Amino acid sequence: MRAQQISKTAAALREEIEDWRGFEQRLRDAIELARLDDNSLRAELEAEVAAIEADLEQRSRRAMFSGPYDAGDALLAIHAGAGGTDSQDWAAMLQRMYLRWAERRGFESEILDLSEGEEAGIKSVTIAVNGRYAYGYLRAEKGVHRLVRLSPFDAAHRRHTSFALVEVLPQVALDDPQVQIDPSDLKIDVFRSSGAGGQNVQKNATAVRITHLPTGLV
């Protein structure tokens, strides 16, 4: 696993270097085009300069991603909050928004877990978003997202406020040396199903819940 992670990191760095070399060559080509001073090429040159400026803006934004996991993949979880069907519908809207965003960015996305709502929308969803800087782009999205609207599920069309919690975590390798969990930070609850007494008493655990106390993650 460690060798695989190093190989993946090296491949990502090579891709980054080649990307910058390509950008440098693009700048050189634009400069050469400008030196021709040909009015017939003016429209082409202006379009290329605008594209280079947009590309440079994105690169400047990525340069701010200095966190240890910013360049890696992300796990995105959405949980419907208070508000019943309206909040579940809002959670589904967020899911579609993030999936479309990932597609436009060229990221790969995979739904790992999905809990549908009873009437509409979703109760929760967990999505793996894979791509260079996926976590860096998404980490600012974590928190409670609120929507105020005239509810399509209310016969009186009253105004409703819906809430959804968005969680964003980096995807890390199991043998990542930066990931260290102190056993004293874990609370382990063991559950046994209820049943008749005597010989029918359940002696085997049927569920285990592990809670990371510092973060509250279960």
Features:
218 residues, alpha+beta, Alpha-Beta Plaits, 3 domains, 5-stranded antiparallel β-sheet, two-stranded antiparallel sheet, 4 helices, 38% helix, 26% strand, flat
The end-to-end distance, rounded to whole angstroms, is 25 Å
Class of the largest domain in CATH? Alpha Beta
Computed over alpha carbons, the radius of gyration is 25 Å
What letter string, H or E per element, gives the SSE order? HHEHEEHEEEE
Large-scale geometry: flat
List the helices and strands and how they pair.
Layout: H1 2-35, H2 42-63, E1 74-80, H3 84-105, E2 108-116, E3 122-130, H4 134-138, E4 143-150, E5 159-170, E6 186-191, E7 207-212
Antiparallel strand pairs: 1-3, 1-5, 2-3, 4-5, 6-7
Could you describe the 3D structure shown?
It contains four helices and seven strands, in the order ααβαββαββββ. With 218 residues, the protein is of the alpha+beta class. It has three domains: 2-63; 74-170, Alpha-Beta Plaits; 183-212, no CATH class. Helix 1 runs antiparallel to helix 2. It is flat and about 75 Å long. The two termini are 25 Å apart. The mean pLDDT is 82.
Task: Describe this structure in a few short sentences.
This protein has 218 residues and is an alpha+beta fold. It is 38% helix and 26% strand. The protein has a 5-stranded antiparallel sheet. Strands 6-7 form a two-stranded antiparallel sheet.
